[in-house]
Amino acid sequence: MTEARTNPDDLEALRAASDILGIDALLSAEERAVRDRVRAFVDDEIRPHIADWFDRGHFPVELAPALGRLGVLGMTLDGYGCPGRSAVEYGLAALELEAGDSGIRTFVSVQGSLAMGSIHRWGSEEQKQEWLPRLAAGEAIGSFALTEPTAGSDPSSMKTYARRDGSDWVIEGAKRWIGLASIAQIVVVWAQTDEGVRGFLVPTDTAGLDITVLEPKGSMRASVQTELRFDGVRQPASALLPGARGLRGPFSALNEARYGIVWGALGAARDSYEAALHHALRREQFGRPIAGFQLTQRKLVDMAIELQKGALLALHLGRAKDAGTLTPAMISLGKLNNVREAIAIAREARTILGGDGVLLENSPIRHAANLESVRTYEGTDEVHTLVLGQHLTGLDAFR
């Protein structure tokens, strides 16, 4: 019997062996530096605590300023104190954050892509100056309210309505599965109006706004999801996002978030694979490491292949985004494929860990649970399948 080619405790060697296609060499030195900085943050600030946070259903809001200092909030936005990094650098950061936990990467996505992205793209100069520097620093937290109790995959059917009353706007309705709202200072609220769908910046301490945390959950436990109810919520004219008209406003932010998921899901999958590989090299049965058995090797190989394919896909989309050629269909393909494969990898990794795989000290079962939420939000598998079907055939099968 040959010796194991790598020390199971030498993570860098395991990663080098798993990079069969040499994808790391496709990254620039600056891109690798960003990745390594975020990876070190995750190792120091998230990994030691995440099992406890998940078990208690706790989101560590105190991480927000640290994530701001790390430069991952509104990472691709320019000006107003935002980092102004490339799409690939943001993708690599999303991957490393979700290797820690999907809930942490989701915080960065809701804050940076959804809330900050909407303000940066559609807000007035005054709104940008007021909110973006604080949000980028993690000194304030933002939320994004689009989904409703009866309007999830079909936002065009939203019932939340904003009517004019003199120079003010009065908002009535409800939103559901809204990330961060209970810990946020500002919410980007999308509502129907006589002029079509418009966006509003609503402070969370506004009279008439009721926020309820949705719990208990079996997934995304180290994260915050809420339900919002608007009962005559009055806002001044200055609350309106002047540049956003119609569903193009929220959809532009959703595409930014979906792009981050393409990379983030790989982080959960990679962490699950590495946990399984480490265990398989150390765990002995029948007088040898279980990594030396054919069935275990097949599982590890299948996981490694999908990780390599997913990484190439994510990198291709990142390069396209930086070049300005990324399309919604490309994002749908990436989100559908990488999340679907990440779930399969997390579940398969759990089987290699055997009984120990159900303990939260081992990450695959937590990642598998979290990825069920990632699979659902920002477009379900079914929605992205129909987006791609429409792209291929020219026929809309949504109705």
From TrEMBL:
> What superkingdom heads the lineage?
Bacteria
Which cofactor(s) does the record list? FAD
Which reactions are catalysed by this chain? glutaryl-CoA + oxidized [electron-transfer flavoprotein] + 2 H(+) = (2E)-butenoyl-CoA + reduced [electron-transfer flavoprotein] + CO2
E.C. numbers: 1.3.8.6
Q: Which residues form the Acyl-CoA oxidase/dehydrogenase middle domain?
A: 143-233
Its UniProt pathway annotation is: Amino-acid metabolism; lysine degradation; Amino-acid metabolism; tryptophan metabolism
Please tell me whether the keyword Oxidoreductase is annotated for this protein: yes
The UniProt record lists the Acyl-CoA dehydrogenase/oxidase C-terminal domain at 245-392
Q: Which InterPro entries match?
A: Acyl-CoA_DH_CS, Acyl-CoA_Oxase/DH_mid-dom, Acyl-CoA_Oxase/DH_mid-dom_sf, AcylCo_DH-like_C, AcylCo_DH/oxidase_C, AcylCoA_DH/ox_N, AcylCoA_DH/ox_N_sf, AcylCoA_DH/oxidase_NM_dom_sf
Q: Where is the Acyl-CoA dehydrogenase/oxidase N-terminal domain?
A: 28-139
Q: Which UniProt keywords apply?
A: FAD, Flavoprotein, Oxidoreductase, Transit peptide
Q: Which Pfam families match?
A: Acyl-CoA_dh_1, Acyl-CoA_dh_M, Acyl-CoA_dh_N
Which major enzyme category is it? Answer: oxidoreductase
Homology family? Belongs to the acyl-CoA dehydrogenase family.
Looking up PANTHER family in the UniProt record yields: GLUTARYL-COA DEHYDROGENASE, MITOCHONDRIAL
Q: What is this protein called?
A: glutaryl-CoA dehydrogenase (ETF)
Q: Which organism is it from?
A: Microbacterium yannicii
